[in-house]
Amino acid sequence: MPETKPVLMQGNEACAEGAISAGVRFYAGYPITPSTEIAERMAARLPGLGGVFIQMEDEIASMAAVIGASIGGKRTLTATSGPGFSLKQENIGYAVMAEIPCVIVNVQRMGPSTGVPTAPSQGDVMQARWGTHGDHPIIVFSPASVYETYYLTIAAVNLSQKLRQPVILLLDEVIGHMREKVFIPEDSKLMVEKASDKVPADYKPYDEKGLTPLVPFGFGHYYHVTGLFHDQYGFPTGDPLQVERAQDRIHAKLDKYRDEVVLTNYIGHKEPRVVIVTYGCTVRSARAVIKKAYWQNRQPAGLLSLQTLWPFPAKEIETLAKQADVILVPEMNMGQIVGEVERHVKGEAEVIPINRYDGEMISPDQISEKMGRWLS
Amino acid sequence: MAVIESSTQDYLRTKKLPHIWCPGCGNGIVTAALIRAIERADYDQSDVVIVSGIGCSSRAAGYLNFNTLHTTHGRALAFATGLKMARPELKLFVIMGDGDCSAIGGNHFIHSARRNLDLNAVVVNNHIYGMTGGQHSPLTPTGKKATTAPGGTLEREFNLLDLAKGAGATFGARGTAAQPRQLEQLIARGANHKGFSVIEALSPCPIAYGRKNKLGGAVDMLRDMKDSSISVERAAGMEEADLKDKKITGVIYNYDVPEYAEVYYRSIGKD
Fold this sequence. Notes:
heterodimer, A: alpha/beta, Rossmann fold, seven-stranded mixed beta sheet, five-stranded mixed beta sheet, 13 helices, B: alpha/beta, eight-stranded mixed beta sheet
């Protein structure tokens, strides 16, 4: 792919640029620290591309506007942070239920509530999974660098379109505000994966047989869109059989495309005794630890970074648990993903949480101190 | 009785009937008036979008054979804003109930009025939350009873059209289910208006509101609605004291202000 010379860019800006490269031409949002730069970048960029930027009256409206624009056929994105992410939950659930593609960025800050607005945190991992009510499928990515933010945003937009499923990008304040070198491809059209445009005359937007593309409003298909359980044409139903089938179908989408959805990256020893499992900005501290332990000292250590948090990379963890004696799980919260790790390790390795929740990053020392004990 | 000539049936999803509304409900009358207004405007069926919120009247979207979007409670206008900005050529009608529009959706309502996108809001005002069984809304008149105001609500009510006007709405009209011809004309005029239009449609809820307040059956309620309404033209020559208990119907205000999608697309060189 043709690339320009490197540019120095903030994570939030890279997110906006990734969205634009992936064809996003509609942004609705509301100002909130530390995500505001995404809105500012979109406000500056979209009009020149013939797109729409709109600052809505609140977070709820931003989420609603994005869904409305998606039904109109636009690729859409909205960005927010903790408190705003809480407000968006209802309509995120609507997008899941009605299978409307959209991307929601949450640049995590320290909570609960207003918390420490400018301090980093990874406290929204479980909210991203279960923030909206009811059983529902969700895709959540968490980038560990500015470069990864750019590419994961593109992946989020394309997957969202393909699976007709909202995708959440869980940045943290460190990644959002950090400046790093990024290569932005020259021809952004390369980044837009087009959905199939073959539509049968009897268009079923919720075809039981499998994924159908969303035909936007205004093309003569008079289907219905609702947050109620619905039949293949979108009309409300309370029939237990249809309800169960619809629930199974929206969950099965993610299982079927699991290999495209679940992204992880392993570095380190081939037969590790100790593995660090982490995500987001904490990957950076973990990488420094592995650099020393494995690349310099050849100790049996490794790092599994999770680009995808949800659906949880269960298979990858199960494989690791068979090899490693110890799995360290550093995260900037009181322990959220660690429970999920334990669930899939099933006692085959020792799982040790490393937590920090004072608004500061986990340092490499904090990790290596725990790790040292198992490698000596 | 005059028969209203219409091909209403053409735009109904008759297979989805019977509807969920109670006997005597005004939602059917308002929905039929909406269909005839759309017919009058002579739009392409495929360009017409019905957006609705949550509540009894919002279920109308499911019965209408257009592009239909049944959203979340209070958020219909916010969904509509996104869709209209994305696809300004589409013709959007937004059906909301009084609680949906003025309570949980109040913020979206005033900002839609301010922004002046070409959306046609049809607010079915039956003074009550019907679907949940009769709780008071911001449009329940002071003193009227509801399940959550067993002794009569102590709160003051909004004047919906004044609220919209204060927020910058450029077209405001009021009609009633008792006068469906006029209501149809008002919705049609709102549709022709370039900008945000609000049509308040007073509508009877004999089950959840009428019964609690001893207002009689549907026919009594419709008759009272008709008797207590007065056209804006007639009201113009009357004293304020004589209008105290009257509902003024017709086009209450109509201003010519640049429409937002046009302003936006012109600003980016795509008009």
